[in-house]
Amino acid sequence: RKLKGLVAAALLAIAALCGCVVFFLMFVSEHPLVHENYNLMWLNPLYIISIVLLFTLAIIMKWAHCPWCGGSLLRGFYKNKVCPHCHRDLQSGKKKKGHGGRGRK
């Protein structure tokens, strides 16, 4: 799974760099053969944005799990102080005092 992500990122990076070269040649060069270059449709320099989003999502998904129970913390990621699954404090790791998992009667 990690290898697939690295291959996808490498292919996007190569396509983005080639897209920047084609974009430069298309708009800067005065040669008549590169004026209407349709390779810009699949070698798009905007792939750089998708590379940044891919790495940002990978970093968020890596850090968005409780280190003790592995539960997802994506809802309220920045404001969570306690894991919603195991009720541990995310800073100290101590269990939250309370009803011990039982509801109030």
SSE map:
Elements: H1 2-28, H2 47-63
Helix pairs in contact: 1-2
List keywords for this structure.
single chain; 2 helices; mainly alpha; 42% helix
Provide structural commentary.
The chain is mainly α and 105 residues long. It is built from two helices and no strands. It has helices spanning 2-28, 47-63. Helix 1 runs antiparallel to helix 2. The longest helix has 27 residues, at 2-28. 4% of the residues are buried.
List how many beta strands DSSP finds.
0
Helical percent range? 40-55%
Q: What separation lies between the terminal Cα atoms?
A: 46 Å
Q: What integer is the average pLDDT?
A: 76
Count, helices: 2
Percentage beta strand: under 5%
Order of helices and strands: HH
What's the shape?
Answer: rod-shaped
Q: What class do helices, strands and sheet pairing give?
A: mainly alpha
Q: Over all CA atoms, what is the radius of gyration? A: 24 Å
Main pleated-sheet profile:
none
- Uncertain runs are none
